[in-house]
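thread: overnight batch results

M.L. [08:02]
morning all. the overnight job finished for the chain we discussed friday. pasting input first so we're all looking at the same thing
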Amino acid sequence: MNERYRHTQTAWTLIVLVVAIVLAELIHVVFTASQGTLSLALSGAVVAIAAVMLTLFSTLTVVVDDRALRLWFGFGTLRRDIMFADVTAAGKVRNHWYDGWGVRVIPRGRLYNVGGLDAVELEMDNGRVVRVGTDQPDVLLAAVKAALEAQPGPCGVE
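M.L. [08:03]
and the structure it wrote out:
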């Protein structure tokens, strides 16, 4: 498989926020240790949730090859393959700040994002869209367009 693009974006804002929450919770535990096991259990739950968030959503890797755009978060537990045979158009878009991070439902489709507002939007043949957040929108879009143009049959690229 001819790999046209590979990039891993790190979610620095998420990492800083989660580390700050964990540190605040640890400070809380140290200064309120006499409050008992419920406080310790809740603090442990907060730290566990933070660890899961960091594991799942700290990075987004995007690979464009001849057949598909493949993406995954973290170590690959959340992944998606978008086959170019199903894509009718691609373009650069800008997300709203409130669209957030992670996997999100947006009008007409899904957004996969770990930070920033820039994205590449793929319009599917069923009318749905897939947006992939990226800190390299021009490079990603160029790779997607090159892969779409190499597909057999008609493929409209905006």
